[in-house]
TrEMBL record:
SUPFAM superfamilies: SSo0622-like. Residues 2-165 form the tRNA wybutosine-synthesizing protein domain. Belongs to the TYW3 family. Gene3D superfamilies: tRNA wybutosine-synthesizing-like (3.30.1960.10). Keywords: Methyltransferase, S-adenosyl-L-methionine, Transferase, tRNA processing. Pfam families: TYW3. This is tRNA(Phe) 7-((3-amino-3-carboxypropyl)-4-demethylwyosine(37)-N(4))-methyltransferase. One of its GO terms (molecular function) is methyltransferase activity.
Amino acid sequence: MEKGLVDEELIDLLLALNENENLFTTSSCAGRITIGCNGKNPEDKRGTEHLLTSHSPISVYDVFKALDGKRCQWLWIKASHPLLDIGVKDIDLAMKLVSLAKTAGFKYSGIQPSNCCYRVIVRGSDNIQYPLSGRENGHTIAKVVSHANRFLLNGKLKLVRFVGLLEDEGIINSLEDTLFYDEELL
């Protein structure tokens, strides 16, 4: 795991998963909030400028700072749940991981066959996204920020539940008191 390529708050979990000889991780995201700006087509990822990307809750100030002086035809704020892509060597273990993920609240988790293994994709509801004009007042931005932060933290709480279930089943060693969010935010 190269520094900067992995969300720091997931490192302990990814290391624990990779310690299990039947598992390996391929990609992950701790959940994030982004503000995107695109001049032509919001579906064009290559043409999108990310004005803000945060794996932690954001503030109204963060949004106004990111939007300051920007002109975009398409502008939006998006919050995404965590995502884990886990290679699993055994179908029974893969099915167990999906069951645990769904129990933790990641209801869109599933198995994808691959040449090397069974790929378990741990994911919740995709995301929430709000269009922005760039002319919103503080009250409107505060409501949007509140919803985005709540969605982000909800996903991180599901991740904590998933880790607890993995530990209870002996799939990973205990991560002690690892949290994927700041307790003071709740």
